[in-house]
Amino acid sequence: MDWLQANLSNIIVISAVGAILYLCIRTLLNDKKKGKPSCACGGNCSSCAMCCHALDLRKIAGQRE
């Protein structure tokens, strides 16, 4: 019981961080299942220079040409 009382603040903080991490991962997985892009460009990769999808599309286009 003494150990639990001594580490209660650590347990609460770790639980809160774990819950936030779980919610973030769940949101990402749900968005992926729904087909939403993970980028901030909204899926319009041709107008987004920093989009990860645009970089992949440029690599694929370069390989096919």
Please describe what this structure looks like.
The protein is mainly α. It has two domains: 1-34; 39-65, no CATH class. Helices cover 69% and strands 0% of the residues. The chain has three helices and no strands. The protein has helices at 2-6, 8-34, 52-64.
Can I get a quick summary?
With 65 residues, the protein is mostly helical.
Give me the count of strands: 0
What's the mean pLDDT score?
A: 78
Structural Rg:
21 Å
Q: List the domain count as a whole number.
A: 2
Given the structure, what is the number of helices? 3
Low-confidence stretches: none
- The percentage of residues in β strands lies in under 5%
Element order: H for helix, E for strand: HHH
Decide which structural class fits the backbone: mainly alpha
Amino-to-carboxy terminus distance: 69 Å
Instruction: Tell me about the largest β-sheet.
Output: none
Identify the overall geometry: elongated
How much helical structure, as a percent, in the residues?
A: 55-70%
Write the layout of secondary structure elements.
Layout: H1 2-6, H2 8-34, H3 52-64
Pick out its properties.
65 residues, mainly alpha, 3 helices, 69% helix, 0% strand
